[in-house]
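Notebook B, p. 112. Complex prediction, attempt 2.
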Amino acid sequence: MTTVHIPFLQTGSLAVGGRLLSADERSVQSHSDRPSSLTKGHRACQGCAEALAARWVMDTAVDAAGGRLVVANATGCLEVFSTLYPESAWKPPWIHSLFANAAAVATGIASSLRAQGRDDVRVLAQGGDGGTVDIGLAAVSGMFERNDDVLYVCYDNQGYMNTGVQRSSATPASARTATTPAVGSTPGQAFGQGKSMVRIAMAHEVPYVASATPADLRDLEAKVRTAMSIHGARYLHVLVPCPVGWGSEPSQSIALARSAVQSGIFPVLEARAGELTDVQRIRERCDVTEYLRPQARFAHLFRPGGEDALDRWRALAEANIRRYDLLGGA
Amino acid sequence: MREVLEGSQAVARTVARCRPGVVCAYPISPQTHIVEALSVMARTGELGACEYVNVESEFSAMSVAIGASAAGSRAYTATASQGLLYMAEAVFNAAGMGLPIVMTVANRAIGAPINIWNDHSDAMALRDSGWLQLYAADNQEAADLHVIAFAVAEELGIPAMVCMDGFVLTHATDVLELPDADAVDAFLPPYLPTQVLDVEYPITIGTMAGPESFTETKYLQHLRFLDAAEVIDGWSRRFLEAFGREAGGLVARYDRDTCERSRDASAARAGDVTVVAMGSVLGTLQAALPALHDAGVPVRLVGVSSFRPFPAAALRAALGASRDIVVIDRALELGSGGVLTGDVGRALAGTRSRIHSVVAGLGGRPILEASLQDVVRRALDGTLGALDFLDLKTGGIPVPTAGATEVHR
């Protein structure tokens, strides 16, 4: 019998989660029997990167925990679009209590499991940037400081998107929101405000801190898997573009996450016990405008008078590139 | 075994005998020795399979308790005053989710002005949070109530506050008999949550209920609350049988002659002045009223043991035909009167009772026996009004005329 070898052009590539790789090298998402922890029927907007990232994160965590994962969720988009009574899109046992307390509720679950001698069940807490960086910061910090056995995941869409796109302390400089309108002498969110939750987490010297985006599925999955292999307080910060809040095309969510990384705006890194251990280098550097221009919240930067702000954005990217050696070779 | 114990220590040791799975507390805002004693017992192993979590705020204390309770553990915390208000959002949330957490509230005033001393303003601010509120008259009852509270809360799926007066009880030393550990084990059923975060049977807890289902959710919560009176009474009777002491219940009746607490005491009569009170002031009244009785003043005492649910029927029965009701109130509803008075008034609506609200002991002001006796005499001779502030110092206070305002810039 004559055999003809037909080359699969994507063999060996990481595209589509590595569906053409050998089974043990594939991403969780490329398996037809993936857990689909956040299952169909929820009410997320078109192009919502949070819904995508949450499913990827949760599926990997469920997989890593052997199906034994309990989840505490802060109030926010993710909670509202997934659990409108009497429906729920969550497959794992899942609890929502309040906006600011997901980390503390998760601590309570972890403590309860420990008291019951259940070391086979893992705990994950998740929230948006509001529930993490703003109103929930104290509870997150407390959980870090006690080194409670919780993986906390923040899906950062850089504002209060569920309630009409108000500013949070994770909103980037110059972004237009409902409470930082693009008018006046300093349109949008002021420069010099905001806080780096990743660096705050690192300052707690918790066992593991990482950042990721849905533009790199394998990296995101690898970080969740690493986090799940460690006990104690762990933090994962995921940048999730939001078409509604950012004023971008739903089809561009992944592209925006990618340009945030490739422009140097969003460093993708790993840290252990407060020390930076790995940084994803910029592969194909782009200008900040590639990230900013497709977003209506930055439209005023591309009108006359916006040049200064663009320069400041470039300076922010440069600062990140220097701080984290994003181009390598430093 | 009778022991000399501080109220807080007695509560801590009783809570330990209830075998909580998770204890969490913030040590300030303000706190009592209860959680300090429990932290010691956690370290020495006396608490058994229990996790003690040092949290960074009361808000997180209640949130940790929520997580622990939802994951299947008996959860306990304690707080008071500003701390109770700081956790208020989570307090409502625990009740809405039907998590039977037990919390000691060492009742203290709410600022401003800042004041660390005893009154009931803190718990009263959360009277509609969906929690049971059981008030201790003395330290023996404070300890005993915790055993009852876990049983009641877990049967109903409603969280319970055990309210005990800050300092007056928490920091006072008394001769007490702690509930025996084996007897508590026999008395208190194991915690079997009706809903639990279980990987074998995954459920979603805490969904959003829209306008089409919120009213019904609240109605179901209301129905469970209506069951609470009977359940509280039932567990208090069982406690009496098991431990030989009266504790809890809905309304505390007191004997006409001796002023001793008695389940069998008769109801008040038409000519009686009946004093209604809650918490440790009942002890002061027990000391103050017999002298009046000996002097021929027809006075009776009724205690409210369960403020939430409010035992309207039991209170009406205890008050009988009494015309003059004097409510000693430890919290003020500004512009109106005592908070407890409002509930007593609702319970007596349609009767011919005259209700006198006496706001007493705010922010730790001592409540003197002589002042209480004076109030009862004034109720009897018709000179006590609908609202009175016990021992209000008016001499030196320049009282502005109504409506007068002066703007300081």
